[in-house]
Amino acid sequence: MHKLLVLYPKPADPDHFRDYYVTNHLPLVRKWPGLLAWRYSFDVAATTGESPYFAVFEGDFADAAAFAAAQASPQARRLAADVANYATGGAVVIHYPVQDGTG
Description:
Helices cover 32% and strands 24% of the residues. By secondary structure, the protein is an alpha+beta fold. It has one domain (2-97): Alpha-Beta Plaits (2-Layer Sandwich), CATH 3.30.70. A four-stranded antiparallel beta sheet has the order 2-3-1-4. The chain starts with a strand and ends in a 6-residue tail after the last strand.
């Protein structure tokens, strides 16, 4: 499994962010090739103090190769270009392989 994580700092207009994200951006996400599952939240909290993030997105891909192919797609370019339409606070984008663990 390979995960994409997008962390969004607080935008200038939180209501616009929420509306645009759900109405316009997520429909683009649904068309992203290779995306197995995805989740998002506007209720980001820190365990102590105030969270530096307003929203978070998680996307799951089968492996690093599937993620690389998805990133090379025209859909990925559309997604990246769309971020400026709602994320006035910018976005921190990271990706990584996920290791299974047991407790």
